[in-house]
Each structure stands twice: as structure tokens, then as C-alpha cells.
Design brief:
The structure is a single chain. This protein is of the alpha/beta class. The protein has 10 helices and 9 strands. It has a 6-stranded parallel sheet with strand order 1-4-3-2-5-6, sandwiched between helices. It has a 3-stranded antiparallel sheet with strand order 7-8-9, covered by helices on one side. Helix 6 crosses helix 7. The protein is globular. It binds pantoate.
């Protein structure tokens, strides 16, 4: 596996890389969810570039960028073992040199839910993802369904900027008890960790009701919220929303829906979603 840190070196590499070329963008601290993205990319692409970049522009002022884990040696070993052809690990200066003045502002799917809770977050995501797509020039790029709103934002971004790339959604990887695998899980105390799967259980139980015929959005959302309220270690439920998976607008009662929720346990905020089709 090649390790690259400059955009020029990356372009030299991708010029001759066998196609189709897959991109797996990450912020490192890799877990089974990231490795599922790599596995999906390896299954469909002749070569795969993974990126590790803790993007400062997607962190809010109250979010601890400095605390974000950066186990680079382990991450590189995991990517190499997973069969990635090149890891692009740029510095902040390489990605955002002094004088950089361009930010992509996203409306539409970036506005509700996480967009309300984390103002500016999706502008930071969209800007860095656009740069990575332009730098790597992949045929396919892989994102987790776990961050369902990010997926919708990236799809909209690629469509709006006429980027010749297929955005591929990879199903959420879950622990045996249903908790979605996430780097944030490491911040949970043992007691919080035990309580956390209630988030998925509430979403899955609501999806079961949907499949059994309950199709009134407000009633589904209220039912899910009531299940979450039963877990005393959830300090707050930021939102429970059944939305159109592409637009993030409230589900209109026809077609597929994404049921998304965010809960807070102390300092840790967990998000998860299920698709209801
Ligand atoms: O999902 C992530 O890890 C990040 O938001 C991404 C897509 C790598 C952009 O920094």
C-alpha cells in the first residue's frame, strides 16, 4: 500500500491506477464500519484509495477537535490488511493552505436534524468531500448508511456539481446488541454502553410497526420517542424524525422513509437510523 500526503503525489498515483477506482473517505480511528466501506469498495473496484483526514471545518466550536482520536499507525495497518492500494493522509495545510477562501454551502438535505443541531457541520463535510472527490477522481465513493443525512448531502453535492461519480451507500455495521458501530461509542461509560442499544431497539421496533401497517408519521415518531423516553440514561432526545431519505424533508406518507434519531448521554451524542420501505 502506498502512503501519500500530497495532492500532487495522489494525482500521480491515481493517473495510472486500475479502474474502476473506489474512494473511501474517513477521519481515521477506523472501526468495523469503515472496514465494511473498504470491503464494499474492494468488491466493486479494481483499486481503492482510502483517505484519513480529521477535517477541522466540520467541527463546531463546542466540539472537541483536539480530542478526536488519531491512531495513525493502527489505521494504516488496518487499511493495508484490507487491501487498499493507497492511503492519502494529508496535513491540514495541504488541504486548507493559508488563504483558502472557498466553502461549499449546502441547503436542502443539510438543513434539518443534524444541520440544526450542528450549524455549519455539513458545509464543512461538503467542502472536504468535494475536494477529496476532485483530488482522487474516483468512479465510486463509499459512505455509511449510519450517517444517513451525510449520505443524502453527499449525493446532492455530487449531483449539483455534476461530478462523474457514483455514491454508494453501505449498510450500518452493528454490535451484537444492535448498537451501531461508531467512534463515539468509545466515550461511553460501561453503564451508558449497556443502555445505548435502546436507541436502535426503539428505531427497529418502530420500523416493525411501520411494516405491520402503522403509517402515520406523527404517530410513528411519537411512539419511537416514547420508547426512547423509557431509558433514564438518555439525558435528551434531540430528534426523532421520519424523513424522505434523499431530501430529509418530513416523510410524505409514500415511498421509502428513513427514521432517524439522536440522543444524548452525558457528553456523548449518538445518532442512528433505519430505512422503512
Ligand atoms: O464520515 C466521515 O468520517 C466524515 O464526515 C467524512 C465523510 C470523511 C468527511 O470528513
Amino acid at each position: 500500500m502506498r502512503q501519500l500526503s500530497t495532492i500532487a503525489g495522489l494525482r500521480d498515483f491515481t493517473r495510472d491506477a486500475p479502474r474502476p477506482l473506489g474512494l473511501v473517505p474517513t477521519m481515521g480511528a477506523l472501526h468495523a464500519g469503515h472496514l465494511a466501506l473498504v470491503a464494499a469498495a474492494r468488491a466493486e473496484c479494481a483499486s481503492v484509495v482510502a483517505t484519513i483526514f480529521v477535517n477541522p471545518t466540520q467541527f463546531g466550536p463546542a466540539e472537541d477537535l483536539a480530542r478526536y482520536p488519531r491512531p495513525l499507525a493502527e489505521d494504516l495497518a488496518a487499511l493495508e490488511a484490507a487491501g487498499v492500494a493507497a492511503a492519502f493522509v494529508p496535513s491540514v495545510e495541504e488541504m486548507f493552505p493559508a488563504g483558502a477562501a472557498t466553502t461549499i454551502h449546502m441547503d436542502g438535505p443539510a438543513l434539518p436534524l443534524e444541520g440544526e443541531a450542528r450549524p455549519g457541520h455539513f458545509d464543512g463535510v461538503a467542502t472536504v468531500v468535494a475536494k477529496l472527490l476532485l483530488e482522487v477522481g474516483p468512479d465510486r465513493a463509499y459512505f455509511g448508511q449510519k450517517d444517513g443525512q451525510q449520505l443524502a448531502v453527499v449525493r446532492r453535492l455530487a449531483a449539483d456539481l455534476d461530478m462523474p461519480v457514483t455514491i454508494v451507500a453501505v449498510p450500518t455495521v452493528r454490535e451484537a446488541d444492535g448498537l451501531a458501530v461508531s467512534s463515539r461509542n468509545a466515550y461511553l461509560s460501561a453503564e451508558q454502553r449497556e443502555a445505548a442499544p435502546v436507541l436502535y431497539r426503539a428505531l427497529a421496533a418502530t420500523r416493525d410497526r411501520f411494516r405491520a401497517g402503522a403509517q402515520a408519521r406523527a404517530e410513528l415518531e411519537a411512539g419511537c420517542r416514547a420508547l426512547l423516553a423509557q431509558q433514564p440514561l438518555f439525558d435528551a432526545v434531540d430528534y426523532v424524525a421520519a424523513v424522505d431519505p434523499d431530501t430529509m424533508e418530513p416523510w410524505a406518507g409514500a415511498g421509502p422513509a428513513m427514521l432517524a434519531a439522536a440522543v444524548r448521554m452525558g457528553d456523548v451524542r449518538l445518532i442512528d437510523n433505519v430505512l422503512m420501505e
